[in-house]
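User: Hello, can you help with two protein structures?

Assistant: Certainly.
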Amino acid sequence: MSRSKNLISLGIIKNPNISHESILYLTAAVPRLSFLDLRECTNIDLNVAVKNMEHFTELKELYIGPASVARIKSDEFISSLMGHIPDLFVLHLSQLSGLVDDDLCEVLKHAVALHDFYVSFIDFGWKMAGALSSCLPNLIKLSLVGSKTFVDADLRCICGSMTNLSVLILAACPRISDAGFS
């Protein structure tokens, strides 16, 4: 990688052999990385990896989770992620045990450039819906998957205020009914 200083896009998907140590090396070797996909790299301690990601200077698209190594320490994780949040166009968070509705709300309050937000199997609800509605009215793509706490009123809140939304994906949210679309 040391000869790949011009690398701007890297996807390491479904690789159990990658750990957070690789992220530290990458931040030194290719600090201008703008696209990073770590989906299903289950051996990564994301608490440490996201801390190491602070050294990326131009990150615009980030795909992370799930991770099975350690439970997310939400305060540390969000604090480390916050340096990138205002510049991200795409953020996908999947099955990050330890993150809750309040954490997602905090992230979204600062995600002014976000166009594509995907969250799966993290219990999100009214706080995240409120942050989406008030902070991200220009969001284009929204994917909400696997929340037991997301309800019809949350969906109405989002749909009523996000007039630029062109793609909405709802899956495995058992508390959404016909009333959410009325």
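That covers the first. Now for the second protein you mentioned:
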Amino acid sequence: MVAALLASACGGCKQKTEFAGVGPWRIGKTHLRDATGRCQPEELLDGRKGTWCFGQTPLRLGGQDASIDLYFDGTEPDAKVIEIQLQFRGCHEEQLASWVRTNFGEPFETRGKRLFLRNSAAFVVADLPESPARCAVRLLPRSETGELERMRGAATRSSPTGSGSGSGSVTGSVSGSGSG
């Protein structure tokens, strides 16, 4: 009865939607078998065996075109996505920052031009710009706290503006063929 009263008291309330991905790619739902681009096995920076998939169909996000790389925790078809990486060439920084904030909320931390956000499903790391005229947005499952901490440390070690080669990703491979 109490639940019914609470539900009726909030009849007109809107529940905030929390995004766990973009387009068809979702943290907790996307598996390696869902990838549509080219995939290759990789050794992840933390020593795990994984798969890097690139060449997915680009998406238009925040008024800009994003290329998409997917990284998976394993090489089997049921391996789960551990990073959705969006890369924006010719990035309009302010426009992308607005899109990130609108869809994922306010950052819990900012280091230079790197924004760190989170919701119940994902960590989001936005590099604005990662390099001149290029931005990247990375979505990680909340279970990837080690990778989030690595990215936070890389932001501290990078140039005073927060951009630089220390951005990397969970998937940057030991062999160097990762997302760079």
